[in-house]
Specification:
With 534 residues, the protein is α/β, with parallel strands linked by helices. The chain is built from 16 helices and 16 strands. The protein has helices spanning 3-8, 21-33, 44-51, 70-79, 97-105, 118-136, 161-241, 247-260, 277-282, 291-294, 346-377, 387-404, 418-425, 427-444, 468-485, 503-519; strands at 13-17, 37-41, 58-62, 88-92, 110-113, 143-150, 153-160, 266-274, 300-306, 317-326, 329-338, 408-415, 450-455, 458-464, 490-496, 525-527. The strands form four sheets. It has a five-stranded parallel beta sheet with strand order 2-1-3-4-5, with helices on both faces. Strand 6 and strand 7 form a beta hairpin.
């Protein structure tokens, strides 16, 4: 590009006048890369000082600088006798018509607008150097002068036409370049806008999908939370019912917990209906309204609204019925009012049916425990207390007497000639006689007293709050009733409690009295040794 000049001059030199060190270094790098020798000045005054000492082939100057701007520098160069024909290129971001007129007025040779690329800069310099060669060869027209009035200012243009054309062409090329850049930028922006619209559409789709996923996750979270609350409720009830030994308290606890909760769609009216022995055996309920519910073995939901026959006056609602099962057999029903149209998922149904089985088993265990307890403390034939029960009751009375000094006594009785009765009528009749005697004893005692089958045809009565007189009167009344109602006789021995006396000791004293009653002719009451009616 610069070969013709390089043949005539070993090196083309350029003076850069730029107050921005960064931009000056960038321009210097581009020029030196293509073989130019470069000098630098920070402003116009420093540039003029360098021109006194050197003769560069070209000056590239910024316009806006301290001390002396680019226009003033160009004027100063045109006034310098040695450098008046030195090409001056104004490097600036300015591009108004006034800027062009000012450049023409100061006889600048060219405009290069910022920002610039390497190829554009080098093509402009080649054009400038060619113009300079023609000027030095005398091939360019002479100077022309003209005055231009623009926006309230006069501009005196005194330069050759080629310089004017070069400057105008440089300005035109700069505008064309800028327009190309704008078109390129517009295409890039259009593509970016399309990409942005596509990204926005994708973002909207992603947002909608994320919102949908978030809604699904929220619904799952609510379902999991509700399931956890239902599990805690059911497991809490199951834990408590397994600790209870009172069926009434157990049922009340379950009803309270479910009534206080809003889970499983329950709105209140929770109650438990337990079956009695006859209903369990026959499958027929006394309340016919419950019969349809009893016939099922699984949870029932009635959408409603229906009125509850079990709770007259209640607001119509949906109804839930949970069978209470023990060994797969119903022992009761748990009923509750629910929201109208309630639907339960399979997991909720299984939870509630499991609760029904757990409650049913707990109630059955309580019943069996009570039966076992009663059997362990009572005689299986007569239903009277056995010796274990006697020991417990004796300890309680003994402790009570130690605290309150309240007396108590013991009556030991034996049916006269019972062996003869068994031999005559048989053992089954003998058993029936024992049962009737037991019933007679129960009728004669208070709730604070205890009747015990002591062994065979022998019975014992533990009588609270009684002294010798009361014990004797009670024993004699029983003796007369047995003779009158059952046509049998019995012998009685009685003893009153003495301090710190054991059951064995007290029984031994009563038994000794009974022995004496037998030997005295039977059918009588005898006191223990040392005791007398006062």
């Amino acid at each position: 590009m610069f070969s013709s000049w390089l043949n005539e001059h070993e090196t083309l030199s350029v003076l850069i006048v730029e107050d921005s060190q960064t931009q000056a270094n960038q321009l210097r790098y581009l020029l030196e890369k293509h073989g130019f020798a470069v000098q630098q000045a920070l402003h116009g005054k420093e540039a003029m000082a360098l021109l006194e000492q050197s003769d560069p082939h070209l000056v590239i100057s910024d316009i806006l600088m301290p001390e002396m701007d680019g226009y003033a520098l160009c004027h100063a160069i045109r006034q310098h006798p040695r450098h008046r024909d030195l090409p001056v290129v104004l490097l600036t971001s300015l591009s108004s018509a006034r800027d062009i007129l000012l450049a023409l007025e100061c006889k600048a040779d060219h405009f290069i607008t910022k920002p610039y690329n390497e190829s554009y800069l080098l093509s402009r310099m080649a054009s400038i150097l060619e113009t300079m060669r023609q000027r030095l060869s005398g091939l360019l027209p002479e100077h022309t002068e003209s005055d231009i009035f623009f926006q309230g200012e006069w501009f005196h243009i005194n330069t050759d036409r080629q310089r004017i054309l070069d400057l105008l062409m440089a300005t035109y090329e700069a505008m064309v370049l800028r327009n190309d850049e704008l078109i390129t930028t517009q295409h890039e922006l259009s593509e970016l806008n399309g990409q942005l619209q596509l990204a926005v559409a994708e973002a909207n789709d992603a947002h909608q999908q994320s919102q949908q996923i978030l809604a699904e996750l929220s619904a799952r979270d609510r379902a999991i939370r509700q399931t956890n609350e239902e599990l805690r409720l059911v497991h809490g009830i199951e834990s408590l019912v397994n600790q209870s030994r009172d069926p009434g308290a157990l049922c009340q606890l379950v009803c309270d917990r479910l009534n206080q909760s809003t889970l499983f769609g329950i709105i209140g009216g929770v109650h438990i209906r337990l079956l009695n022995e006859h209903e369990r055996n026959t499958g027929q309920l006394a309340n016919h309204h419950c019969q349809p519910c009893f016939s099922v073995r699984h949870l029932q939901l009635l959408a409603g609204p229906i009125a509850s026959e079990c709770e007259p006056g209640s607001t119509p609602a949906g109804r839930m019925v949970i069978p209470l099962l023990a060994q797969l057999q119903p022992i009761g029903l748990l009923c509750a009012q629910t929201r109208i149209g309630l639907q339960l998922d399979p997991q909720q149904r299984e939870l509630l049916e499991s609760l029904g089985r757990q409650i049913g088993m707990a109630l059955e265990n309580i019943r069996l425990f009570e039966e076992t307890r009663v059997l362990s403390l009572h005689d299986p034939l007569t239903g009277l207390a056995n010796r274990r029960h006697l020991e417990i009751a004796y300890s309680n009375l003994q402790a009570r007497t130690s605290r309150s000094q309240q007396p108590f006594g013991l009556i030991l009785l034996d049916i006269d000639h019972f062996k003869r009765f068994n031999d005559t009528y048989g053992h089954p009749e003998g058993d029936q006689l024992l049962i009737r005697v037991a019933e007679q004893l129960r009728q004669c005692l208070r709730s604070t007293d205890l009747a015990v089958r002591f062994g065979g045809e022998e019975f014992m009565l533990l009588v609270a709050d009684s002294q010798t007189e009361q014990l004797f009167a009670l024993a004699d009344r029983i003796r007369q009733l047995l003779q009158q109602d059952l046509a049998i006789t019995a012998s009685f021995g009685l003893a009153c409690y003495q301090p710190d006396e054991t059951l064995s000791q007290m029984t031994e004293r009563a038994d000794e009295a009974l022995y004496r009653a037998k030997h005295a002719g039977r059918n009588r009451v005898m006191l223990a040794q040392g005791e007398a009616i006062r």
